[in-house]
Amino acid sequence: MCGIAGSINSTLTMADIDLIDHRGPDYKNLIQDKCAGHDLFFGHTRLSIIDLSEAGNQPMYTDCGDFCIVFNGEIYNHKELRTRLTHVKFRGQSDTETILYYLREFGIEGVKDFNGIFTFALLNKKVGKVFLARDFFGVKPLYYFTKDDKLVFSSEIKVIKKNPAYKKELDITALNTFLTLRYNPAPQTLFKDIKKLPAATYLEFDSTTNITLTNYWPKKQKVDHSISEKEAVSEYKRLLEQSVERQLLSDVPVGLLLSGGIDSAVLGYLMSQKSTNKINTFTVGFEGEGNFNELDDAKETARIIGSDHHEIFMNREEYMDYFYRSFHHTEEPIAEPTIPALYHVSNLASKHVKVVLSGQGADEPMAGYKRYRGEKFLTDYKKILSVMPLSLLSKAFPNNSSIDRGVYSSKFKEELDRFIAIYTLFVPDQKEKLYKNEINHLITESQRPLFQEHFDRTDPKADSLSKLLYLDTRTMLPDNLLLFNDKITMANSIENRVPFLDIDLINFIESLPIELKLKGKVTKYVHRKAAEQWLPASIINRKKRAFETPVGIWFKKELSESLIELIESPQSLSRDYFDISFIKKMVHMHVARKKDYKKHLFILLSLELWYKNFYNQN
To answer: In CATH, which superfamily holds the domain spanning 229-365+470-540?
Structure first.
């Protein structure tokens, strides 16, 4: 895992590369070259994982000098790819060298053959082009900015933000999206003109400075209803075991971020079976009782899988300290309360290992969240629900935000509109009260264009929940959950691998009918059936709690005061765009337990802290 940065017709310096030094403290370098007469800079910071020798250093050229690469990530099947390059005399054993020559041999379309997590920039002097690429599920982020004949790119926004060619400005369209979804799907960021490269996409910059984007994996959903449960469980087991074995590929120790749930427990069991050394596991918990304290569950799992277990507590002061500091690394105000907890446990893990596996990516393709049961309920009983006064539910249960979103989403007849509504936090009525007149026109702006392309690839014959899972795996997962997982673990100079997103495994999971994912109230059904051969029932049937936090409780006390102090400050974002009195009213209603606004308030708190700690900095 590493950091990459580069530019065309815009100077980069080692000071720019130093901004992402935490992504790769083992080695860094910056080269200057030409591409079809254009000035080119490629920079790299290296976290040595595979082939620790100098042969793995980057930027890396081919022996002919016509190709150069800067690469961030891991290619788990790189040894298989090498068997197709029999004429190449390799200098070392790194996956970087493998894909460099693979791309020389098979062109940019060769990226389809990579099984891994990656972003890279490739210089091809023969055709006078530079290519940027991001992996199938967007596990690794990549940002870019273009102006006139200039291109600047980096693993992190801070490199682009510092570039003289970029003029800092807030994107109010992206701000509206963020308030709707609490994250920004690619290509949006809150920095105007800085874009996220979408997952499974490569960008091509040619000799005339034209830019084109190509989705190299336009996979359409196709559900196979002929497979039996026994066949599905058997194949799932084989593919997950294969994925874990692939992702243990490393020349340094590999650990595990262990929650109290089934996903990381399964990974831990398989790692212990396939590793020659005892694995290290890491867990964070909060002081007090509740779903946010899973230390005992994790400790029991660690005992069963036989790991060297490390745990750490987190109190409110530590949480807020990490929360404030996290925005420097996330760079986008993703409103996820788990971020400080991940920061804390990643810091613990970094003292023992360079690589960790985690259970991220299991829930979206296999219907692991409660909201998926809600979607199935809405579709199964839509005829009955259509004649019921559902709006009364919100009044009857004012402290249940899930019911609010369910009622709101039930108003939409089109599937895609309903899917977007499921994730909508600030609904139009609330935005009318929140927004100042200058941005009122954004209230009616549709979010459909951010999801339409993916929705068009869903199987028209599939049930609505299967479509929603397909959509989530390509939108919310890469640009929300995976994004902050990469940023926060890399802030502590460790690599986070996600075995549940192995491309072969996901291709299989997405072909399964919905009843093998959600059966009655049993989520991730095929996963649980497979786990019966690996783990005791006490772990398999545990209530899902992973990395929950007591933020809702804190908002009834100290956090509400922190938010009010931030919005009232002279340079707050809220002063420019929002009605502060309405925010105070939301705080009052939440504290008085008249309405559950913890997610709304957390969005606003995240925005203000991001604005103060990142956007307002020079």
So the answer is: HUPs (3.40.50.620)
